[in-house]
Every structure is written in C-alpha cells, then in structure tokens.
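Shape matters. As here.
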Amino acid sequence: MRLLKEIRNLLGNYHVKSGIYHYYREEYKQAVDFLRKALDTDDNITDSDRRTAGYYLTLTYLESAQRCEDRGEMEDALAEYTQAVQVSPTYPDIRYRFGRALERIKRPAEAVEQYGHAIANHGKYLDAWVAKAFCLLGMGRTKESADAFRDACEIKIETVREPFETGIEQLRKDSIGPARDAFHQAFLFVPDLFEDHYRKALKLLKEEDFEQALTRIEAAIELNPFYPDLYNFRGVTLFELGQLGEAVESFRKGLSINPKYIIPKMNLAFALLHVGDVKEGEALLEEILEADPQEPAALAKLEELRASQIPDKPKTRRAVNRGSHR
C-alpha cells in the first residue's frame, strides 16, 4: 500500500519518516538503518509508528532481495529474505518468494519448507501449492507431490467457480458491469501478466512517472478488478496528476473491496479535504482514530482542521480617550 506524500510528511517519528523517505528513493541500506533505529532504539515510538516502521521495513527487505536476485546475487537475496521473515513471519508472500529463490540455487528441501509456511498462513495460496507440488515432484517425493497437486487443483477450480457464480448472480440483478468484472476474473485472469503489470507499476510510481504508472495500473485492474491495493495505487497516481475527483472515487473503490484497510481510508480522507468535502473527510479521520488513537497523521490533520474551524475571538473595543471637555 502507499500513502499520499502529504500524509507521509505528517508521520510523527523522525526515524520512521526518514526510513520511508529512503525506501521510496530505493536507498535500501539507509531505509533499514532508520527503520531499525525506530524499532530497536526509540523508546518513545508509538504503537502506530511501530506498525508503520515494521511494514516499511518488510517492504524494504523484500525489494532489496528482489534487486539482489535480479543481479544474480543469490546469497545476498537469501539474507534479505531471512531478515524480512524475522520482521513479518506470517506474511505469506515473503515465504513464497523465499522459496522460489531457494529453488533457483538448488535447495529444494528448504524451498518446500518455505512454501509450507506460506500455505500455513494462507491456505488458499495457489502459487505456493503449485510450487510446492512441483518441488516435491522434482525431489522424487511422489505421494506428497500428488497430494499437493490435488489441493492445488481444488483451489484452482474454486478460483473460477466463485467469480463465475458471482457473475451469474449479478446477471440475475441486471448488473452488467459487476457481472462482466466477475466473468473476467473467472475466465481471463492471467497471473503472470498481472504480476508483470503490478510490479512495473510500483517501480514507475517510485520513479514518479505517473502517466506510465497509471497505464500499468489500469492494465492490472483490467486483469484483476477485485484486488484492492490497485485502486489505492490508482488513487495516489491520479492525485499526483491533479485528477482529484477521480482519485477520490478510486480510493472509495479500494475501500469498498476491503473496508478494514487503513491506508486507503487515510488517503480518501485527505483527498476529500482537498476537493472541499470537509465533513466526510473529518468523519473518516475520526474513524481512523477510533481504531488507532495514536495515528499521527490523522491526529495532526484533525487538530489542524479543528483549529481552522474555531472562529476568531472578537477583539475588545478599546475606549478612546477623547480628552477633557471643558
């Protein structure tokens, strides 16, 4: 997920802000140094800033690992994945990517272990099931491989059946657009192509090439219209391009898919304030603070709003001494 720049600037902890700044510049070593300081040595860090630091530290290790893989520096990549696992041990995508890296250097038993962790934290993680099944097959563990392929097959069938049934239900309601999205998901989704668009969009966002990023995000949405992160990225991109009304609608869409996500809710609140909808923006900030009373950006913005709404105190009219009258 990604926050608007304005929100990142309102984060309370210096080390967290500095770490995020370096993360977006792809200066991963500096990002790790600052985020580690926030987590390990800053006694005054709030729970909210601690969660933010952990989230960005995980992303930093993941992207650093991917950079190492792209360069063929596999041992360094494994070290980065190991660090990412220590920060976020239940994040299934780390385990999956860790497993793929282990397979590349012919360490299949360890790869199977990582796929197992991914599945333990996300039982329907199809890619992890398929990778585990092929890995077991290559090791000659045929019975375990057959079991894994069966589980993968059930999940694969479900990935078609569920959106298909949703599409049929939408047709019964004459909801053509939602039906089309569901059938697209059922029959036209291409995971590898989606992943390519998704990763390139994130890179373009970091480079602040917003026009090209938007093109990639739209292509990814076309392939997978139910992935909430995409609408948040789209909203951030549109906001940066000055298309504020469309940004608001994109944040709304992402939030409608997953109402528990704080980041798109925060982005939506700030975008609403920019388009002049102070009432709804303020209400969303209050919702965020109900869930996390220490959230620094929401606190700062709400205080700013309320200060601006306090009417100026009327000046006391001073008596004018007009001199003595004779």
Summary: Confidence is low (pLDDT under 50) at residues 315-326. The chain is about 75% helix and 0% strand. The first helix runs from residue 5 to 8.
